[in-house]
Specification:
about 270 residues, Arc Repressor Mutant, subunit A, Beta-Lactamase, 6-stranded antiparallel sheet, about 45% helix
Length: about 270
């Protein structure tokens, strides 16, 4: 596993939506052909356009195999080919993704609560859910400062790089285990990098009931999160994010707002 840092300069927007440090899902017990097709699609999580040779090289398969899979996916609208012969994600994949987004029950419950927190704090507000060793942000209400730092990036981040990941892992043993197994590759100067630091951070979160992380994913940016817990288990988190000079002095006001918001979401979701 690579330990190279991927730390953009402060305020610089990047477009890396895929968490490249996280191992890809396996296909044990499944159809190999389906697994190959899904592997091809995941190549586009890092690059917007790829040729047949690019895909074949990345997956370690023959060009003829890559071409057959891409042709099949194109025929179903999951990818599309441009005039230069390069492939991109197709509109049908976008349609399915939007359906998944629209049908997310937790998001529906959380959205009005998130809007209220955004109005009260003026900060970017995120709704995060666990996925393996990572956190995926299924909804975001952005402030002006959040747009400048995040852009379209950060939809998936390793749990150890975010306050959302810390607070979820503190109250969800599976996430805690998956992140430990995946390791702690650095992303910014405040990233947790060792198992003992991970254990210490989670113990602190359990004691405080919330998580704060400075420069965990982006330089000079901070986040604070509260867990959305159903029957004691964290199923998600609500967090605020922004430049450290704005977030750090506002913690005393933000923490109780987030805690109340998380409890409200959990109560309405489990009703």
């Amino acid at each position: 596993m690579s330990t190279a840092t991927h730390e953009p300069p402060a305020g610089v927007v990047t477009d890396d939506a895929w968490c490249t440090s996280t191992p890809r899902r396996g296909t044990a017990g499944g159809l190999r052909s389906v697994g190959t097709a899904l592997d091809v699609l995941e190549c586009f999580a890092v690059d917007s356009a790829l040729g047949v040779s690019d895909v074949a090289r990345r997956l370690g398969v023959a060009k003829s195999t890559a071409h057959r899979v891409l042709t099949t996916l194109a025929g179903r609208g999951f990818v599309e080919q441009d005039s230069a012969g390069l492939y991109r994600l197709g509109i049908h994949l976008y349609e399915l993704g939007m359906l998944s987004h629209a049908r997310n029950g937790l998001r529906h419950v959380a959205l009005p609560v998130m809007r209220a927190v955004a109005e009260q704090t003026g900060h970017t507000v995120n709704l995060g859910v666990p996925d393996g060793a990572d956190v995926v942000y299924v909804e975001r209400i952005e402030s002006v400062d959040g747009v400048r730092i995040l852009g379209h990036s950060g939809r998936r981040l390793p749990a150890h790089c975010t306050s959302s990941g810390l607070v979820i892992a503190a109250f969800n043993p599976r996430v805690e285990h998956e992140r430990r197994r995946a390791g702690f590759p650095p992303k910014a100067r405040g990233t947790i990098r060792r198992s003992e630091d991970w254990d210490r951070a989670l113990a602190e979160v359990r004691q405080q009931g919330h998580a704060v992380l400075h420069s965990g994913s982006f330089t000079d940016a901070s986040s604070v999160a509260a867990a959305i817990r159903v029957q004691g288990m964290a199923i998600g988190s609500i967090s605020v994010f922004g430049p450290t000079p704005l977030i750090e002095p506002d913690l005393r006001r933000v923490v109780p707002l987030l805690t109340a918001a998380a409890n409200r979401i959990a109560k309405q979701y489990s009703a």
